[in-house]
Design goal:
Length: about 525
C-alpha cells in the first residue's frame, strides 16, 4: 500500500511539473508580448544626451569636462558605462538599434521580476501577477533608454541575494552583492547610495529583535545572526565605488543633487501627488489588504522595506518605480504565504483553468487587448491626465516634432555657424540640440548646471527665472552673451520676445520659434 501511495505521489509530481513548465512557457510568452508593447517608440530627452556623452567618452575618454554646453563647465557622467553602451548601439543600428535595445532591457527586467519572484515566493501565479503589476506601473514613463532600466535589475537582484544569503549563509551571494555594487557604481552612480539603503531594514530588525526578543501580535520580529555578516558585507561593498574611472562620483553625486535646486524644479524630483498616481495607490493598496484585512503575520524587515519605499515615493515621483519593483517582491512572499495558509489548492486550480482552452483564449485576448492599448500610446497613460494623441499606432522609432525642434535644428545647422552662436534654449529639448551637435544653454543633465556641481554659477536657476519671467530676460541675455533664442511657440517668453524690436524672428514653424538677438538695435537704443 505504501509503495502504491509513493507511486501515486511521484506520478502526480511528474504531471504537475509538466503542467508548471507549460504554464511557465505560456507566462513567459505573455510577458514578452507585454514588454514589447510597453516599450515606447518615441524617445525621452535623456536618451539623446546619453548617446552624445557616450560618443565623447568612447572617443576622448573621461576628461571631466562638459563639451556640449557653451558655458565651459566641468562634468562627469554618473552613468558613463551605460552612455557608452547606448552610443555603441546607436552607432551600429541607429535609432532602431536603441529601440531594440530598450525592448531587450524591458524584456530582461520583466523576466527577472518573474524569475526572482517565482523563486522567492514559490508560486508561479503570484509571480506572474507581480510582474504584470510592475509592468503596469513602469509603463508610465519609466521604460525608456536610460540607465535606470539597468539599475532596476541590479537592485532587484541585490535584494534577492540578501534574502538568499540570510536563508543559506552561502558566501557566493556576498560575492554577488559586491559585483552588483560595482556594476551600479559604473552604470548608474546616482543610485549607488540607495544600494546600501536596502540593508537598513534587515539591520534595524536585528537590532530591535536583540533589544526586544519576544514577538507580539501579527508583527514577526526575527533575530537572524546572519545579519551580522550582512552588515560586514555592506561595509565591504562601500569600497565598490572606488572601482570606477569617475573619482568620487558614486559617493557624492546623490548628495550634491539633494543639496541643489533641481529637486524643486525638475518634475521627477518633486513630491508625488498620491491621488493622481494610480500605480502608487495600486501597490500600496495591495499591501494594505494584507495588513488590514488578513491575519497573515508580517516580518518587520518587510514592513520597514515597503514603508520606507512608500515614503521615498511620496517624497519624489521617480521612486515609484523602485516601490513597485522591490515592494512587489515582498508582496509576492506575503501573497504566497496567505495562499498556502488559506487556499492551498487555489494556485493549482488557477493554473489548471488558465491552461484549458477557454482559459488560454481569454488570457490571449486580455494580453492582446492591453498590448494594443500600450502600443497605441493610450492605455494606462490616462492616469497622468495626458492622452498623447500624436503617438497613436506608430510603426517605427520616432522623434516627436512637437516636443523636439527637429525642423528648427535643420535650419540652425544649415544656416548658422553653430560653433560661434550662443543659443538660449529650454530645458526639455536641450538634449536633442546636443544630439544635433548644437551647443546648449541647458539640457536635462540638470545637476551639471547647478553651482553644487559646476562650482561657477547656478545656470539652471537663471534659466527658470528667465523662463518664468522672474528676471528681465534682456539683462540676463546680456550677462550670458546670448546671440539667439529658441523657444516653443506657446512659451510665455515667446510672447514677450515677439513684441520686442530687439529680437528678430529668423525661423518659425508650428511648434518652435528662433529669435536673433539684434545687438545693432540694442546699441542704437542705448545711444
Amino acid at each position: 500500500m505504501q509503495e502504491y501511495l509513493y507511486f501515486c505521489a511521484a506520478f502526480k509530481n511528474i504531471i504537475m511539473s509538466a503542467i508548471y513548465k507549460k504554464f511557465d512557457v505560456f507566462v513567459l510568452s505573455a510577458i514578452a508580448i507585454l514588454c514589447y508593447s510597453a516599450t515606447p517608440l518615441w524617445f525621452q530627452n535623456d536618451t539623446f544626451y546619453s548617446i552624445m556623452v557616450g560618443e565623447r567618452i568612447a572617443e576622448q575618454g573621461i576628461d571631466m569636462t562638459d563639451g556640449f554646453s557653451w558655458h565651459d563647465l566641468p562634468y562627469c557622467s554618473p552613468h558613463w558605462a551605460f552612455d557608452v553602451i547606448v552610443y555603441w548601439i546607436y552607432n551600429t543600428g541607429g535609432l532602431w538599434g536603441v529601440y531594440i535595445y530598450t525592448v531587450m532591457l524591458c524584456l530582461l527586467l520583466g523576466l527577472t521580476v518573474y524569475a526572482l519572484n517565482r523563486r522567492f515566493s514559490c508560486n508561479r501565479a503570484v509571480a506572474f501577477f507581480v510582474t504584470a503589476v510592475v509592468l503596469f506601473v513602469l509603463y508610465n514613463g519609466f521604460i525608456t533608454a536610460r540607465a535606470q532600466m539597468m539599475s532596476y535589475i541590479f537592485l532587484l537582484i541585490a535584494v534577492y541575494f540578501i534574502e538568499k544569503f540570510l536563508a543559506s549563509k552561502r558566501i557566493i551571494f556576498c560575492a554577488g552583492l559586491f559585483i552588483v555594487a560595482v556594476l551600479i557604481a559604473n552604470v548608474h552612480a546616482a543610485v549607488f547610495p540607495f544600494f546600501f539603503v536596502l540593508f537598513i531594514p534587515y539591520i534595524t530588525e536585528f537590532i530591535i529583535a536583540t533589544l526586544k526578543p519576544k514577538n507580539t501580535g501579527r508583527l514577526l520580529i526575527v533575530r537572524d545572526n546572519g545579519v551580522k555578516w550582512l552588515s560586514l558585507v555592506a561595509v565591504v561593498c562601500l569600497f565598490a565605488g572606488l572601482l570606477t574611472p569617475t573619482g568620487d562620483t558614486p559617493y557624492t553625486y546623490l548628495f550634491k543633487t539633494i543639496a541643489g535646486m533641481s529637486m524643486v524644479n525638475i518634475t521627477e524630483h518633486r513630491p508625488l501627488i498620491l491621488i493622481l498616481s494610480i500605480g502608487t495607490m495600486l501597490v500600496a493598496g495591495l499591501f494594505l489588504f494584507f495588513i488590514i484585512l488578513t491575519s497573515i503575520r508580517i516580518r518587520l524587515k518587510d514592513l520597514l522595506m515597503v514603508g520606507g519605499l512608500f515614503i521615498m515615493t511620496l517624497a519624489g515621483n521617480r521612486h515609484l518605480s523602485l516601490f513597485a519593483i522591490i515592494g512587489m517582491f515582498f508582496w509576492g512572499k506575503l501573497a504566497s504565504d496567505y495562499l498556502k495558509e488559506k487556499q492551498p489548492e487555489l494556485t493549482d486550480r488557477f493554473i489548471d483553468v488558465v491552461l484549458k482552452r477557454k482559459g488560454v483564449i481569454i488570457t490571449i485576448i486580455c494580453v492582446i487587448f492591453f498590448s494594443a492599448l500600450m502600443r497605441s500610446g493610450f492605455g494606462m497613460r490616462i492616469y497622468d491626465r495626458k492622452f498623447h494623441t500624436g503617438f497613436y499606432f506608430l510603426t517605427k522609432p520616432t522623434i516627436d516634432e512637437v516636443s523636439y525642434p527637429v525642423k528648427a535644428c535643420n535650419y540652425i545647422t544649415d544656416s548658422l555657424d553653430v560653433k560661434n552662436i550662443r543659443l538660449f534654449n529650454e530645458y526639455n529639448y536641450g538634449s536633442y540640440l546636443m544630439f544635433r551637435h548644437i551647443p546648449v544653454f541647458v539640457d536635462s543633465r540638470a545637476d551639471l548646471y547647478t553651482i553644487e556641481f559646476n562650482g561657477k554659477r547656478n545656470i539652471l536657476q537663471d534659466f527658470f527665472d528667465i523662463s518664468r519671467i522672474k528676471k528681465f530676460y534682456d539683462e540676463a541675455f546680456e550677462d550670458y552673451g546670448v546671440t539667439h533664442v529658441l523657444l516653443k511657440r506657446d512659451a510665455a517668453l515667446t510672447t514677450l520676445l515677439s513684441r520686442d524690436i530687439r529680437y528678430r524672428e529668423l525661423y518659425w514653424d508650428d511648434n518652435f520659434v528662433l529669435f536673433l538677438r539684434d545687438t545693432a538695435v540694442i546699441d542704437d537704443q542705448q545711444e
